[in-house]
Design brief:
single chain; flat
Length: 148
């Protein structure tokens, strides 16, 4: 339940932010389209990374240790960045080897033009997800305790 709540709430916030940020001269239909595309684009990687994050939290639960929040943030940032690079590295190779794509001088140039936004987004997600997950964990536990 927490995985779905965390994934959907972060995805909705990302979609709303992307829709609002790019809606200066757009019609209402364009804003809705931007929201749906942004939400759909981020949902699958976000869900996979949140599942890996919860798997790691369960491993810590089995060892009866609770990781610090900064360690959770750094772990999630590493997971997101690794996922981002695993998607972007084949794209960089395609740009270098295919004449119809833009040829970059180095990976640094590719990083600055194509990947920097993704790394910043991954960093924001890695901070927001543990905080939101702890919030949902506290709310769900309190809700379950009040129902009994």
């Amino acid at each position: 339940m927490r995985i779905v709540l965390t994934t959907l709430s972060i995805g909705i916030l990302y979609g709303l932010t992307a829709g609002i940020a790019s809606s200066i001269h757009w019609t209402f239909g364009d804003v809705i389209y931007s929201f749906i595309m942004s939400f759909g684009f981020i949902l699958i990687p976000l869900f996979l990374c949140v599942c890996v994050f919860h798997f790691l939290l369960n491993i810590y639960k089995w060892t009866r240790r609770q990781p610090a929040l900064i360690f959770q943030i750094l772990t999630l940032c590493f997971i997101f960045t690794l996922f981002l690079f695993s998607i972007s590295l084949p794209d960089f190779i395609r740009h270098q080897n295919n004449a119809t794509y833009i040829h970059y001088k180095s990976f640094t140039e590719y990083f600055k033009t194509e990947l920097l936004e993704g790394v910043i987004t991954a960093t924001m997600f890695s901070i927001a997800i543990p905080l939101l997950d702890n919030y949902f964990k506290n709310k769900i536990i309190k809700f379950d305790a009040s129902r009994q």
